[in-house]
Specification:
By secondary structure, the protein is of the alpha/beta class. It has one domain: 3-Layer(aba) Sandwich (Rossmann fold), CATH 3.40.50.300. The chain is built from ten helices and five strands. It has a five-stranded parallel sheet with strand order 2-3-1-4-5, with helices on both faces. It is globular, with a radius of gyration of 17 Å. The two termini are 35 Å apart.
Length: 257
């Protein structure tokens, strides 16, 4: 039974989930959120671009296949605009009140997709992201990968519906994106923890929890999780997980960059 939310003196925590297409970020964000809520923490699940009324409108423009003439520079600035709105309106206030914020994509995706993928200047992207984030940096980033090729990831991402504009960018584009994520993980091992989602969901979930356990000491207690806690993911397909966050209906839709 979940503990009731109580006023907390604990610091807010920002955890971002990154990775190429089809890595299964949404399920594991929701599962982690459920566990944290069960320990009495306020949890907010968000996605980029999106999470605000303005951000969701920008998202629709960015991902629409009708906008295939969009210039890479315009694409980058739209992502940063949506991010600035999300940080200022939602993330910064949530962290200030001690909330745990779980965000599906953040600044690393911009470096991977618009930097490595589109070939834009990475130093400029870093400056633009720092401006949009008001200096905010994630406390931890979980980098999920399929363990397979970019083709495998795209097949996972699009098997339930049509591809969006970014998913249609081509195999070589997504190979560059995946390579960039791995380079970032190697460059920032303290912040970015890699998890391969090529086994049962329960196995991946355990790895995700290990990747953030130092931020939540109770996770290391012997009786932190009841028997079968992780294994139920293998049979529920995530359907029983709560829909969380300020814009839960948006968050639970099929995602995409």
């Amino acid at each position: 039974m979940a503990q009731p939310l109580q006023p907390t003196n604990e610091a807010g925590v920002l955890i971002t989930f990154e990775g190429g297409e089809g890595a299964g970020k949404t399920t594991h964000i929701r599962f982690l959120a459920e566990a944290l809520q069960g320990r009495g923490r306020e949890v907010l699940c968000l996605r980029e671009p999106g999470g605000t009324a303005i951000g969701e409108q920008v998202r629709a423009v960015l991902l629409s296949t009708n906008n295939d003439e969009m210039a890479p520079e315009a694409e980058l600035l739209l992502y940063e605009a949506a991010r600035a709105q999300l940080v200022g309106q939602v993330i910064a206030p949530a962290l200030a009140r001690g909330c745990v914020v779980l965000c599906d994509r953040f600044t690393d995706s911009t470096l991977a997709y618009q930097g490595a993928g589109r070939g834009l200047d990475e130093s400029f992207i870093e400056r633009a992201s720092a401006f949009a984030c008001q200096g905010l940096v994630p406390d931890r980033t979980v980098l999920l990968s399929t363990g397979g090729t970019a083709t495998d990831g795209l097949m996972r991402a699009t098997h339930r519906g049509a591809a969006d504009r970014l998913e249609e960018a081509g195999l070589e584009f997504h190979m560059r994106v995946n390579d960039a994520f791995q380079r970032m993980a190697a460059a920032h091992p303290q912040r970015i923890r890699c998890v391969v989602s090529d086994k049962r969901k329960s196995v991946t979930a355990r790895a995700v929890f290990r990747a953030v356990a130092d931020l939540f000491p109770w996770m290391n207690e012997p009786d932190a999780f009841p028997e079968g806690f992780f294994e139920r993911l293998d049979v529920s397909r995530g359907a029983s997980l709560p829909k969380l966050g300020a814009r839960a209906a948006d968050f639970d839709q099929a995602g995409g960059r």
